[in-house]
Amino acid sequence: MKPCKKTLTLVVLLVLCVIIRLYSSDAARVEMSYSNSFYPALSRSFRFILGKIPLSVGDLLYALAFLYLAYKLARVFRFIYRNRKWEAYKQRFKQFLYRFFIIGSIVYIVFNIFWGINYNRMGIAQQLGLQHEKYSTAELREMNCLLIDKLNNSKRTLIRKSTAYPTNRELFRKVLMAYDSLANEFSFLKYSSPSIKSSMYGWLGNYTGFTGYYNPFSGEAQVNTTIPKFLQPYTSCHEVAHQIGYAKEMEANFVGYLAAKASPDTLFHYSVYLDLFTYANRNLFMNDSLAARIYRKELDTAVKADILEWRKFNFKHVGKLEPLVRWAYGKFLQSNQQPNGISSYDEVTGFLIAYYKKYKKI
To answer: Domain coordinates of the chain in residue numbers?
Structure first.
């Protein structure tokens, strides 16, 4: 490509990046014209096309991208080994910078058009009319009490009914049923053309700390189906929440909670209340560690056994990469309207308290 065409291509891509940035600066505009109009149609199209394919197309794309990067890195090392001339290094560095900005700009544009602009929407609090305010320690204590009752009761029901864990196919079908039930109350949370799949990289997720993820380039919800079974229902509901346009982690957590709660399956109730109690109890511990410990002691023995299994699973899969992955992902979240980084997941507690204040139920 000629130098003038290279410059023009780069300028056009950078201008598009700026336009996306400016468009995303107005949350009301994003909510109306993107999150409630363009994105739902686009995401349904992706799910309709790829949902029937048993393998994860997005995971295959990631694998190809990794192989491409490895190939390019090998070529760089080969070039360094074979060349000793400064002019050759200088020319190759210019090519690298150009390609870096070109590829980076394309990824940024595609990522945002396909999904990322949702980070800038008004979100679920506005849709439900929730007063999302700073909560008190007393409210945290009350929420811990409420969640303990829900958690213990759901576990007792599972034991009494001798409920077996579902297969992956059954689990994903029940997630769709949960969202169908939720849509009866909140029609804007309707989920159609399902595309939920087991991650091909679950083994890697165990050592890097992820239980699921959404692939914005293929529209697929990925679930790490190697984690303890009682965690998978809520994880699946969380990833579907990303699919229907809730990009921020605390919002996906909350929408996932609404779906799991709406499910007729007690396992979904137990899964979501276990996770939410973990968040709420951790938040309480930061303000009143004694009360947090006391509440944990009130959990049924069977619930404590599951928590112990969860901890043993995590301990068994401690990986050296996890701190780096968590740091990098935290920085990514901070750059996308979530200043608390990884701790953004915990902020679902504030949504839960606001929801309880308005609806008097959890």
So the answer is: 3-120, 127-359
